[in-house]
Amino acid sequence: MSPKQRYSKRVSLFTESVIREMTRVNNMYDGINLAQGFPDFDPPRPLIEAAKDALDGGFNQYAITWGAPSLRQALAEKFGWYNGVEIDPERHITIACGGTEAMLSAMLATVDPGDEIIVFEPFYENYGPDTLLCQGKPVYVQLYERGDEFVFDDDELRRAFSGKTKAIVINTPHNPTGKVFSRAELETIGELCQEYDALAITDEPYEHILYDGETHCSIASLPGMGERTITINSVSKTYSVTGWRVGWCIALDEGITTGIRRAHDFVTVGAAAPLQEAAAVGLRFPQSYYDELAAGYVERRDTMLSILGEMGFDYVTPKGAYYVMTHYPDCGFEDENEFSIFLSSEIGVTPVPGRAFYHRAEMGKPYIRFAFPKTPETFARVRERLSRLAEFRR
Ligand code: GLN
Questions:
Q1: What domains are there in the chain, each with its CATH number?
Q2: CA 236 to ligand 1: nearest atom
Q3: pTM to 2 decimals?
Q4: Is the pLDDT of residue 228 over 90?
Q5: In what helix (H) or strand (E) does residue 361 lie, and over which residues does it extend?
Q6: Which pLDDT value is given to residue 251?
């Protein structure tokens, strides 16, 4: 008998995360990690205190599988005032282990083998593999660089929809491009969802990180979309706690929530109980917290862009989130992957090569991505290191 392949066909359809691989590359060269997007500053003090209080206060056993009541209550209140949708904490929320598990559980709950899932490209790495793990088929719709923004073509989007479409994934503000989907764009998408009886599965972790007067719109708040949307989010970015792994799915269709809770229950049982208690405290922070968060990111974005401008990078200005997609100077390298490895090993600053965000590597060739949730000290070191690029330019 010939030896059996030890891993399943569905797992053979994708590889490990390039973003996290670049973190390992970075650590090998002791570089500055602008690859994986996480803050190098502390979360708000009251949040850390709340986590300690929860540990001391007896919250050390399983929470209810679909989430601690305190967190679901706080989340329902915040979703009402910020996202403009009234929800019931008993019937519409599933707390999961970060947005990552939330997305997988949402798809496990809704996608059947052969179902098509529309994904805008460039994309955040997870959506394709999540679809493939559910034996669905990703269908990609391009976001084209036009002027200083990324846009989709309405006709291409329409052609991507069919009777086989189960859902479209919408990530706004968008990783990696920094695009913020406008209300009009979301209306176009929503109309197609209704025409083809498709779901919208959204990923909105950067909803408070906005620049240049942009505002966040959740497609769940648009007419006709409440019942056909799964809104996914987490505490990771809004409260600078990417390691806590507390996220959620909000679905107003109770059948969908039942499905998500079933999948989630058997995937992880539940998110860390004490951190759910602490997250509830964060979700009750006043408006001023979010204003300060956004103001801090304006400063970080502007610093990052000024460094890139000085060093001759031709970037696309992010309107939200904390990444910048940029072209890179000609230093004689074959492609963006070689350039990224060079930047990490020789210059000591690690980006993500564009291929991480496209289903065919060559499509990512024009781009690299930098993450900028960093302190002024880190930016000073980045500036100093990148200035050495001048020696290598053609
Ligand atoms: N969302 C972050 C990024 O895009 C972190 C990715 C991850 O490792 N989960 O870099």
A1: 11-43+288-392 (3.90.1150.10), 45-286 (3.40.640.10)
A2: 1
A3: 0.96
A4: yes
A5: none
A6: 98
